[in-house]
Design a protein that fits this description.
single chain, mainly beta, 7-stranded antiparallel beta sheet
């Protein structure tokens, strides 16, 4: 998904501290080109740019798109990152400059590696009346940020746990491991907690974790979350406790990873290490250079999505507080 904010600046969001938990509140952003949808953006923000290598989190829906026509994001570029698409409902057609033509469906991971440069488009299918999902980005470490383009699809099995179900799409949790390779230690899983249940999950204490609330009522270590909020837990804890005090199932995404200590410059759809990197990527995209390749088969309203104008000041690097 493209970051199509008119002013893709660093976000200013609030924090709500709890017992060992920091709650990150999302910002409402229009997204999706000519047929914009609304998303709740939790990462990045001034207080916390990353959780592990997870550097971007947009949560959207459930949104009725039967009248608007749904999502239509023209071919756009990425560098230095991976995109992880995860749906709860609806279907999105993905095309990229590797030649991939794939569908994003609920409960299935589509992981695209941009590396040196890639372009892709995203269009919801005609039969999709409701869109509901999460778009995540993963920063690539410096030694791999120019790696070759890649695309992986994985449908994780549904795991039955005491009081919950889970789908582990990256990393390891509850005795299962995703076969999808990662460039840094990561965890990504969908969890649905039964009404009235409390679930304690053993996790890697070297990881920091984030719990993104989707539907239902959920608490993390006793701290309640609202829709789209993300609970941050620092490294050191070997267990994450989720509880559902409500009468309906509660669904969350659990994200984690070892702290990502490199400084990043993030602007629009690019991840680099300096202002000069970003300017170079933008110039290459505006010139439709071979760096990003071509997306074949997209039938939308415009051939490609131009980049915004660079700010008049230098783009500063991001890193998490120590």
């Amino acid at each position: 998904m493209s970051n199509t904010e008119a002013d893709p600046a660093e976000l200013l969001c609030s924090e709500r501290p709890g017992e060992g938990v920091t709650v990150l509140t999302p910002r409402d952003v229009p997204l999706g080109g000519p047929r914009a949808i609304r998303v709740r953006r939790t990462l990045p923000q001034r207080q916390r740019s990353l959780i592990g290598a997870w550097c971007f989190a947009d949560h959207y829906g459930p949104q009725d798109v039967s009248a608007s026509g749904g999502m239509d994001v023209a071919p756009h570029p990425h560098t230095g990152l991976q995109t992880a698409s995860w749906l709860f409902s609806g279907e999105i057609e993905h095309r990229d400059s590797i030649g991939t033509h794939a569908m994003v469906r609920p409960g299935e991971l589509n992981l695209m590696t941009a590396g040196h440069g890639i372009a892709h488009s995203e269009v919801s299918t005609p039969d999709t009346s409701t869109l509901h999902g999460v778009q995540l980005w993963i920063a690539l470490p410096d030694e791999h940020r120019d790696t070759a383009r890649d695309f992986r699809h994985y449908a994780p099995p549904l795991l039955d746990l005491p009081g919950a179900t889970a789908r582990v799409f990256l990393g390891s949790l509850a005795g299962t491991t995703s076969p999808v390779p990662a460039f840094t230690p990561l965890l990504g899983a969908e969890l649905t907690v039964e009404p009235g249940a409390t679930v304690a999950l053993d996790v890697d204490p070297a990881f920091e974790h984030g719990v993104l609330q989707d539907i239902g009522s959920v608490t993390v270590a006793g701290v309640a979350l609202d829709t789209g909020e993300l609970a941050y837990l620092a490294p050191g804890a070997g267990r994450v406790e989720l509880a559902n005090p409500g009468t309906e199932p509660a669904r969350v995404l659990l994200l984690g990873g070892t702290p990502f200590t490199e400084e990043l410059v993030m602007w629009w759809n690019f991840v680099g290490r300096s202002h000069e990197d970003i300017a170079e990527y933008r110039e290459a995209w505006q010139a439709q250079a071979d760096r990003f390749g071509r997306v074949e088969g997209y039938q939308g309203s415009t051939a490609w999505l131009p980049a915004p104008t660079l700010p008049q000041v230098r783009i500063k690097p991001r890193r998490n507080p120590s």
